[in-house]
Specification:
By secondary structure, the chain is α/β, with parallel strands linked by helices. It has helices at 8-15, 31-44, 59-72, 85-95, 97-100, 111-125, 134-146, 151-161, 164-183, 188-201, 203-212, 226-236, and strands spanning 21-24, 52-56, 81-84, 107-109, 185-187, 215-218, 242-246. The protein has 12 helices and 7 strands. It starts with 7 loop residues before the first helix and ends in a 7-residue tail after the last strand.
Length: 253
């Protein structure tokens, strides 16, 4: 029944349950169908839904995926963790807050709130908003976090390159992070970067999540940045049961 509406290629992808698998699929070729049926097939074969993680890029896509899986395996589909990267990292940071040394009721700042903090930094550093536009600085900080670069990393590269402008960005970034910590806040880039860094620091907690998520599925894999890729790689290291679905022609990078 699970395989009834699948074409031969989709069926092959669903049945390949053990070990790594990458699926290239263009728009309209049933990428989500493969993911949902693969999850349902794993559950039907006795895999504990608690051990399955499916990640996509929007809340809407995650909701649709969850709905489809629950329709196929109504008794257990709801127990599969299906979320965006950011929601998944929020979950880990919240659960492990005390071990990670962060406030458990941390705030999550959106781009508008980030820009306000950057403006505070510019004022304190005596920098001109016209020359260092807050929205642009927010973008530069976000890109640094996507690459898992801390302020010291940005500063070191700027010094090595002799890039005075980037040295200033590094100073703003450092003060910005200090302010976020003072406010008990994380921005969207922090959600993933801090999860990666904290898991790297706490081998026991990383081992726990590696054991928990024995099967990992990533939709729209072509859009993963370095931080997301690193997180996925870390979690899949033990069991290596990772399935990624994407279309490189649709990559946003």
């Amino acid at each position: 029944m699970l395989l009834k509406n699948l074409n031969p290629s989709q069926k092959e992808a669903v049945l390949h349950t053990e070990g790594p698998l990458i699926i290239f699929a263009g728009a309209g070729t049933g990428k989500t169908r493969v993911i949902t049926h693969r999850v349902a097939y794993l559950v039907s074969k006795g895999v504990n839904p608690y051990n399955i993680l499916a990640v996509t890029f929007t809340n809407k896509a995650a909701g649709e995926m969850k709905k489809r899986i629950e329709e196929i395996v109504p008794d257990k589909g709801g127990d599969v963790r299906i979320s965006t990267f950011h929601s998944f990292c929020t979950y880990i940071l919240s659960v492990e807050a005390s071990s990670f040394g962060i406030t458990p009721d941390f705030l999550i700042y959106d781009m508008g709130e980030q820009a306000k903090v950057v403006k505070e930094c510019l004022t304190e550093l005596g920098l001109d908003e016209k020359k260092y536009k807050p929205s642009w600085v927010v973008n530069r900080i976000s890109r640094a976090k996507d690459e898992l670069n801390l302020p010291l990393d940005v500063e070191a590269k700027a010094l090595a390159d002799g890039d005075f402008y980037q040295q200033i960005i590094a100073k703003i970034y450092r003060l910005y992070q200090e302010k976020l910590e003072r406010y008990g806040a994380l921005d969207f880039g922090d959600l993933i970067m801090q999860t990666v860094l904290k898991l790297q620091e706490h081998a026991d907690i990383l081992a726990k999540y590696r054991e928990k998520f024995k099967y990992i599925l990533v939709d729209e894999y072509q859009d993963t940045n370095h931080a997301q890729y690193t997180l996925t790689q870390m979690l899949a290291e033990k069991h290596k049961n990772i399935c990624v679905v994407g279309d490189d022609d649709q990559s946003i990078y």
